[in-house]
């Protein structure tokens, strides 16, 4: 499985100087200059996740704009696995009716070889 690496470099420069024109009433005249620079570089593979979409409509899971294998898992709010569908081939769109408990919060996890997506749903 390919791994994505994110490198964050943070540069912080702080320069404090005492002002030369301090008045007798204000002896603590302190000025400072600061600069924060953040540079992010990432090694993102060609996973095409920008257009990936997953949503629940009533009791149907809709996955669109993805090609490949997925594993779908559903968990109760307590973390108990209540559903597992393994190695499903998706070719652009996928629709599946899920038999999830009514009036409860469920967490649906869609796993692919390159990313993981989760949905929180109440049916």
Largest sheet properties: 5 strands, antiparallel
- Continuous helix count: 0
Shape verdict: globular
The radius of gyration computed from the alpha-carbon positions, rounded to a whole number of angstroms, is 26 Å
Number of strands: 7
How would you portray this structure in words?
The protein is mainly beta. The chain has no helices and seven strands. It has strands at residues 5-18, 30-43, 53-57, 60-76, 81-97, 105-111, 116-122. The radius of gyration is 26 Å and the shape is globular. The two termini are 34 Å apart. The model is unreliable at 5-23 and 34-48 (pLDDT under 50).
Summarize the helices and strands and which ones pair or pack.
Elements lengths: L4 E14 L11 E14 L9 E5 L2 E17 L4 E17 L7 E7 L4 E7 L1
Highlighted features:
single chain; 123 residues; mainly beta; 5-stranded antiparallel β-sheet; two-stranded antiparallel ribbon; 7 strands; globular
In short:
The protein is an all-beta fold. The protein has strands at residues 5-18, 30-43, 53-57, 60-76, 81-97, 105-111, 116-122. The model is unreliable at 5-23 and 34-48 (pLDDT under 50).
